[in-house]
């Protein structure tokens, strides 16, 4: 109810008398409720942290912090997975490159890569370039100039790798560093049924420690997870260099930097990197 700023003396006296007659507890004015604000992303899904995650992964995958320059990247690195390409290392031999080009073709039919879909379906599961050479790498770089293709890479990175890692990390009660450790593991190993997949790396860690959500200590859990990750990496010659764990993630963990706060200094394959 609106109350005028000015009142007569008589009215003021009457109000004063009325208040004296009311018990003190009844005179108390309840505090206004706190304003409701939108809940910010917490953990690796915070935009600034996500960008840091992309830089750290790029340092290992591309020896560069400039992850946005990697949309056009493509080469066969001789790991038995055919062509490796893009911001997260989509591979022609593991299905995620096929999924990406199929999605890109859904949102932009007739794109420069659409004609390679039959070949990508045939080479899936191996290292063959049949039907891709000699122009696939050139056309990939051309596609990377298209904002729709870059957006498609972002979409598939999040759907297949980033979002599942963050979801599992939050479910396990780990902070930003732990969520990043999960993300990097899924990027390299996928989340299939083989012994070195992310889910089985996590299962192996569970035999040694418990995540915070199950009453465990976060640092102990992440050490167990990274131990299991190193074991998985050593099962394959192409991934046997474990520096992306030993001189990067372990460094952050030993410093107690569970929130992945900057500044960050680490090494991968002997190269030094810094984020201020």
UniProtKB/TrEMBL annotation:
Transmembrane portions of the chain: none
Entry keywords, A to Z: Glycosidase, Hydrolase, Secreted, Signal
Catalytic function, reaction form: Endohydrolysis of beta-(1->4)-linkages between D-glucosamine residues in a partly acetylated chitosan
Organism: Streptomyces racemochromogenes
Leader sequence residues: 1-28
Known function: Aids in the defense against invading fungal pathogens by degrading their cell wall chitosan.
CDD domains (alphabetical): chitosanase_GH46
Family, similarity comment: Belongs to the glycosyl hydrolase 46 family.
InterPro entries in the record: Glyco_hydro_46, Glyco_hydro_46_N, Lysozyme-like_dom_sf, TAT_signal
UniProt-listed Pfam families: Glyco_hydro_46 (PF01374)
Protein's UniProt keywords contain Cell inner membrane: no
Mitochondrion as UniProt keyword: no
EC numbers on record: 3.2.1.132
Highest taxon of the lineage: Bacteria
Subcellular localization: Secreted
Primary location group: secreted
Name used for this protein in its record: Chitosanase
